[in-house]
Amino acid sequence: MATSMAQTLTIKQPDDWHLHLRDGVVLKAVLPDTCRHFARAIIMPNLVPPVVRATDAAAYRDRILAALPEGAAFEPLMTLYLTETSDADDIAAAAESGLVKAVKLYPAGATTNSDSGVKSIDKVTAVLERMAEIGLPLCVHGEVTHADVDIFDREAVFIEQVLEPLRTRVPQLRVIMEHVTTSNGIDYVKSADANLAATLTTHHLMINRNHLFKGGIRPHYFCLPIAKRRSHQLALRAAATSGDKRFFLGTDSAPHLDGAKESACGCAGVYNAPNTLSCLAHVFEEENALQHLEGFTSLNGPAFYGLPVNTKTITLEKRPEPVACSEKLETADGPVTVFDPECELFWHVAAA
Ligand code: DOR
Ligand code: ZN
Predict the structure, then answer these.
(1) Full domain range(s) for residue 221
(2) Which of 14, 62, 193, 255 has a 20 to 30 Å separation from 26 between CA atoms?
C-alpha cells in the first residue's frame, strides 16, 4: 500500500467475497460493473432453480465467463446452494476439482430464492462434517426465519440458536458469517477462534434503518438482513476499519429490476457494485483508517479462503470535486437503481 500527497492510494486489486450476478440479460448488464474493479468474486447460488450440484455450478460458471466483456480478466469463485438433500460426495468432488470454493447456507425463507434452503440444520450435519474434513468453507446467511422473531433480532437469535450450537458440534468447520449487520455479530466473530470470519457489505457501513424510512418508504435501501439501528452501523464501521483480519468485504451487490423493487411487495437487495470502492474509501477516510482499506478489500478475504492475493493493483484517487456515478444501470429488461450513499463521494478508481 502506498499513499502520497496527491491523495492517491494504490492497493492490491480487491475481491468481492459475496456477490449476486443473476443470469441472462441482467448478468450480462451487471458483470462489467464488478469486473471493472474486482479480480474475483464469490458468486451466490440463489438462482431459480438454485445452483445445487457441481454440474449446475460448472454450467453457471460457463455462462458468467461467456458474458464477460471482451478482454476482461475476472475469476468467478463458485458456490453451491445447500439443501437438505445435498450430496456430500458431489460437494467434495466439486471442491477437489477447484470448481467450488464454498457452500452457501440459506435458512429456508430467509431471503430472495431461499425456498429450497435448510429448515433443520440437523438434516445437513453430515454434509457439514464432510466439509469440515476437507476444509471447504460454509457461507452463512445468519438469520432465523420464525414469524415470532422480530426482523431486527433475527441475526442475534440465529447466532444463539443455530450458529453457536453448530460450531460446537462441528468445530473444524470454517464459517463465514455473511453480511453481518449487528454488534452481536461483530462481538461473536471477535470472540471466536480462527475458523470464523465475517463479511460486511458496503451499504450496511453507510446506512442504518432510519434511511429506510426517511420521508417515506425507500425500497432501494431494503435488503436482508435489514439495516439495523445506528449503534449497530457504528459497530460494523469500527470492525471494518479496525484492521482485524477476520473482517472483509462482501458487497452483497444484489440487482433487482426497478419494477421488482418499487412494488407493493418489493424485493430485498441493493445494487452497489458500481460505486462500492468510492463508498469504501469515503468510509475508511471518515474513520481515519485508509491504511486498513487494502486489508479489508484485498488481503483478509484471500487469507481466510487460502487463496493468493491478487498481483495487480488499483489506484484510488481523491478528486477535489465530487465524482459522478450513474443513478441507474440500464438493462434490456429495464433499469436497476444504483446504491445512493446520500453523500458526495470524492474517491474514484483512477487506474485498474
Ligand atoms: O438483500 C438481499 N438480497 N439479501 C439476500 O440475502 C439475497 C439478496 C438477493 O438475492 O436479492
Ligand atoms: Zn446476498
Answers:
(1) 15-308
(2) 14
337 inside domain: no
Atom 10, ligand 1: residue with shortest CA distance: 112
Residue 121 domain flag: yes
- Whole-number Å distance, alpha carbon 326 to ligand 1 midpoint, is 22
Instruction: List own/partner pairs for 150-158 with CB under 8 A and 24 or more apart.
Output: 151/226, 152/209, 152/226, 152/228, 152/229, 154/110, 154/225, 155/180, 155/181, 155/182, 155/184, 155/185, 155/225, 156/182, 156/184, 156/185, 158/107
Span 292-342, pLDDT tens digits: 999 999 999 999 999 999 999 999 999 999 999 899 999 999 999 999 999
For residue 302, whether the previous peptide bond is cis, meaning omega lies within 30 degrees of 0, is no
State residue 261 phi and psi, 5-degree precision.
Answer: -90, -40
d(C-alpha 326, C-alpha 340), whole Å: 10
Compute the distance between CA of residue 78 and CA of residue 139 in angstroms, rounded to an integer.
Answer: 12
Say if 298 falls within a structural domain. Answer: yes
Within-domain flag for 289: yes
**Count of domains in the chain?**
1
Strand bridging mode 347-351 / 313-318: antiparallel
pTM of the model: 0.97
Nearest to 251 by CA among 274, 273, 232: 273
Query: What CATH number does the domain containing 260 carry?
Result: 3.20.20.140
CA 78 from chain centre, in angstroms, equals: 13
Nearest-CA neighbor of 233 among 181, 178, 280, 193?
181
**How far does the centroid of ligand 2 lie from the alpha carbon of residue 254, in Å?**
6
C-alpha cell at 257: 429490476
* Residues lining ligand 1, Cβ inside 6 A: 20, 46, 111-112, 141, 223-224, 254, 268-269
153 catalytic? Reply is no
**pLDDT, tens digit, for every residue of 88-144?**
999 999 999 999 999 999 999 888 888 899 999 999 999 999 999 999 999 999 999
Ligand 2 centroid, distance to 180 Cα (angstroms): 11
* Dihedral sign from CA coordinates of 19, 143, 84, 148: negative
What is the DSSP-derived secondary structure letter of residue 337? E
